[in-house]
Amino acid sequence: MNKLLGVSPRHPGLWQDIPSTSMGASSGNEITTMVTETQGRDELTQISAQLSQLSQQGRWIVLISPPNIGYKQMLAAAGVRMDRILLVHAKDEVETLWAMEKALTSGTSSAVITWTNSLDARDTRRLQLVAKSARAAGIVIESASENTNAHLTTSTINMQDSALSQTTLFAAVH
């Protein structure tokens, strides 16, 4: 029923001009893309210690469209304050990316984690633009089986890489 007509943008909220405001040290965050083969289970386990620290700040940790992978138990076991978790269930990719953009720029979140099948070049570029005004760390967990993008941007992290430094994921938030 939701068919695209002509060349209208897929993300109406994302394509509006973002006002440039001075946000101090928290501006210019990158949105990290993690390619997963475990629906994000391994990736969430790796960043759960940082999420625990961020949850102590009193700001939201937003999970957008997480699969049923036992994330509640993983986060609770890592010491994440469960009263600081905001769960968003989006009906499609358009709503998923719109919710991510709003959560990143709201100023009430410390981390925004989104599960998605894959991002096309236009979605990736738009998220790069949103990252300039983001007030939170952004992570996109992309399914490897659905990943049809031949290109991986410089902010993409392959979780198989042993040189991953988790502290760099959240360095801009502190």
Describe this structure in words.
- The chain is α/β, with parallel strands linked by helices.
- Helices cover 29% and strands 19% of the residues.
- Strands 3-2-4-5-1-6 form a six-stranded parallel sheet, with helices on both faces.
- Strand 2, helix 2 and strand 3 form a beta-alpha-beta unit.
- Helix 3 runs parallel beside helix 4 (121-131).
- The longest helix has 15 residues, at 41-55.
- The chain is globular.
- The termini are far apart.
- The relative contact order is 0.25.
- The model is unreliable at 16-28 and 147-168 (pLDDT under 50).
* Total of DSSP H or I helical runs spanning 4+ residues: 5
Radius of gyration: 15 Å
What low-confidence regions span 5 or more consecutive residues with pLDDT below 50? Answer: 16-28, 147-168
Element order: H for helix, E for strand: EHEHEHEHEEH
Identify the quaternary structure here.
single chain
Question: Main sheet, how many strands, which sense, barrel?
Answer: 6 strands, parallel
Spatial strand sequence of the major β-sheet: 3-2-4-5-1-6
Shape: globular
Helix content: 25-40%
SS content category: alpha/beta
Q: Give the DSSP E fraction (strand runs of 2 or more residues).
A: 15-25%
What is the CA–CA distance across the termini? 43 Å
The beta-strand count equals 6
Mean pLDDT across residues: 74
